[in-house]
Every structure is written in structure tokens, then in C-alpha cells.
Amino acid sequence: MIITNIETVPGKTIVKHLGMVQGNTVRAKHVGKDILAGFKNVFGGELKSYTDLLTESREEATQRMEAQASAIGANAVINVRYSTSSVAAGAAELFVYGTAVVVEDANSGS
Amino acid sequence: MENLIGFVTLLILGYVFGRLAERRHFRSIIKREQQYAGTLTFSAKTPPADMEVANARLVSGNVVVSVDYFKQVLAGLRALLGGRVSAYETLVERARREAILRMKEQARQLDAEIIFNVKLETASISKGEQQQVGSVEVFAYGTALVPQKATAASPSLGQPMAVRS
Predict the structure, then answer these.
(1) Which among A100, A108, B22, B35 could disulfide-bond with A18, CB atoms 3.0 to 4.6 Å apart, if both were Cys?
(2) C-alpha–C-alpha distance, residues B148 and B142, integer Å
(3) What tens digit of pLDDT does each residue of B103-135 get?
(4) Chain A within 8 Å of B146 (Cβ-Cβ)?
(5) The domain A2-105 is classified under which CATH number: 3.30.110.70, 3.60.20.10, 3.40.640.10, 3.40.50.300?
């Protein structure tokens, strides 16, 4: 699965558009980690546990989008956008969407 | 009285450690920015038509940075008068530059030299909470393009061909 956030897949030609695909996940924080984060709030600095949490969540959302795309027969997703929103206190929604397409090698036709 | 002592202790701890952490972070950012200077980032949407691309991949980088207690108090005081909150400006700048660097790091691993359509997103995971942690998340993502010459040995791309968008 090729994923890009531009309107094309460089080096390939789009032969078919299959419509929008999306994936999301809502994650809550770990209480223990949150206490640590509160501690970090005194000293400042990177909150590694949050960074990892968000990376993981985005990966999961992306995987769900990929699953949806491959279910309808796509081999690439273009114009991908990420968005984050907080649904409830202490929980965040990671949302990713894009256009599922079928691509072919640009020089296979010639 | 105890409250006051606690407050002052937190203030001092925040000031000392926050300052040290920030200075260290900025030093490391500047160093790595020089190291990754060869990886170019663009906010333009489409690559030039005559660019020969062998591979395109989405790359991303994110970071959550927390503010220290001293800055939090400083920003609270600033909120009374209004104006520039320079304490937070450096925080967000640090986060942004770090996120971009992490994205470049990923691109470097793929042998990509150019990242197109870079988007920066700022989010908060603890928004709306009572006792919210003063932190900011910056997420950077873009499409890394691997130029053809880097994978010249690749048999599937025998003859060079311009990318048409």
C-alpha cells in the first residue's frame, strides 16, 4: 500500500479512483503515565509516553484506513490528511482520511 | 506558609530544570538541523513535473512537549495583562522544529531527499480537563520522494522517465 499526502503518486499513474477511505481511533491516557506527565509538568521537557501514545494511535488509524482501502481493491491512498480532536476529557480522537486509488507503473503502458 | 514554600520550591525547580532542558533541547535541535540540512522540505503541493521519482512514501514525526512550572506561572501572570507570551512561544517553536526533524529522520532512512506537501498540526491530548497538563503536541507529515538516482540499480525502473502529475 502506497500512501502519499499529495494528489498523485509520483512515478505511477492513477488508473482508477475508488472514493474516500478513512480510519480512526479514540485513545485515552494511562493514569499512571498521566501522573508521571503531571510530574514532568514541573520540570518541563518532552512527554515521551504521550508522544508514543499518539504515534501508536496514528499508526492504528492508518492501518484501519489501509484495511478499508485494500478491501475495496485499492493499492494506494492519496491525498491523506490527519486530524486530531478531543472527544472527552483525557481522550483524543485520531482521524485519518484519503482517497483510495488504483495505480500502475508509469512506464508499463508505454 | 507550607503552601508558599511548596509554591516557591516548584517555581525554582521549574525555572532551573526547565531552563536547562530547554537549552539542551535547542542545542540538540540546532545540531540536528545542520545534520539534516540536505533533506529539503516544501509546503508546495505537487513536485515539479520534470522530477524523476522512484518512490514516494508518507513520512511523519511528532512530539509532545510539556511546559515547566515557572513558565506556567509566568504565562498566568501574562494573561492578566495580555500581550506576548514569550514563555510559550519558545515551547511551541521547540516542538515544531523537533517534529520536523523527526520527520526528516524518517525520510533520511528511506534515502529520500525531498519532502513535499509538509503539513504541521498542533493538537492537545489533555484539552478540557480539570487539572490539565500544560503540553502541546506537534505532528508533522509529508510525502517523501526518493529520487531515481538513489535506486538506479532497481531493474523495474530501467529507463528513466519523467513524472507527470
Answers:
(1) A100
(2) 19
(3) 999 999 998 989 999 999 987 666 555 555 578
(4) no
(5) 3.30.110.70
